[in-house]
């Protein structure tokens, strides 16, 4: 039974260590996205939609 307490204690310390490492990485800016803003202007901003009226008329023609 004492082995279970030892394993739980060790796993809690390991989890706290990973959490601290994650917080340090986030605060240092490691997960900041520097690439996407530079190529964002190459992407289309709007999706071109056909008006609802045209869709209805083309459906009627097919039937």
UniProtKB/TrEMBL annotation:
Q: Which residues belong to the signal peptide in this entry? A: none
Lineage: superkingdom: Bacteria
Q: Which residues cross the membrane?
A: 6-26
Q: Which keywords are on file for this protein?
A: Membrane, Transmembrane, Transmembrane helix
UniProt entry tagged with the keyword Transmembrane: yes
Q: Which Pfam families match?
A: FixS (PF03597)
Looking up InterPro entries in the UniProt record yields: Cyt_oxidase_maturation_cbb3
Name of the molecule in the record: Cbb3-type cytochrome oxidase assembly protein CcoS
- Identify the species of origin: Flavobacterium muglaense
């Amino acid at each position: 039974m004492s082995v279970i307490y030892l394993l739980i204690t060790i796993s809690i310390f390991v989890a706290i260590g990973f959490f601290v490492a994650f917080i340090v990485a986030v605060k240092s800016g490691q997960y900041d996205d520097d690439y996407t803003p530079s190529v964002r202007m190459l992407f289309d901003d709007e999706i071109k939609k056909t008006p609802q009226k045209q869709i209805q008329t083309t459906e009627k023609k097919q039937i």
